[in-house]
Design a protein that fits this description.
By secondary structure, the protein is mainly α. The chain contains eight helices and no strands. About 70% of the residues lie in helices and about 0% in strands.
């Protein structure tokens, strides 16, 4: 296994291991871990907040047109899945949040997207909002409509940017 892939798997395991223990204030558990193990807080806290490895966030290249094409296809798949989820009236946090997370993560893997792709930031804001909810909480009808609009807008921008490259 390549070092980049090892780092990604290690980071994912760490995030998955910490996130279920969070309750109420999402900063309490990580702060306790950082304090107990004398780890500087800034970078790990950012990594836990973002939820995926730096190699994905900063697009450490694995090179090749094939990888690029696969990344674009995965992102399109996640865009369509997210839109279909909302159109099927699935609006609970535990239904929408994982799909939105997968979409955001897939966008970080697309090398043709600029670092300041506004669609990714918009989707990240929605994900952050969902993370403040309980699993059984549902988005209201107007929130679902706005989220669907935002996903469709991000998808259209994504397709325009991919078409230019």
């Amino acid at each position: 296994m390549e070092p980049v892939q090892q780092e990604e798997r290690s980071c994912q395991s760490a995030v998955v291991g910490v996130v279920p223990f969070e309750s109420g204030d999402a900063t309490q558990v990580p702060r306790a871990i950082f304090r107990d193990f004398a780890v500087p807080e800034l970078v790990p806290r950012h990594r836990l907040h973002v939820g995926f490895p730096a190699t994905i966030e900063h697009r450490v290249s694995r090179c090749g047109d094939r990888d690029s094409a696969v990344s674009v296809a995965e992102s399109v798949h996640h865009f369509i899945g997210a839109m279909d989820t909302l159109k099927l009236n699935m609006a609970a946090k535990d239904q929408v949040s994982p799909i939105l997370f997968d979409l955001i993560q897939s966008l970080y893997k697309v090398p043709q997207l600029p670092a300041d792709f506004t669609g990714r930031a918009l989707l990240q804001r929605w994900f952050d909002q969902l993370e403040q909810m309980r699993a059984s909480d549902r988005l209201h009808e107007d929130e679902v409509r706005q989220l669907l609009f935002d996903i469709e807008s991000a998808y259209n921008t994504f397709m325009q940017l991919i078409g230019r490259s």
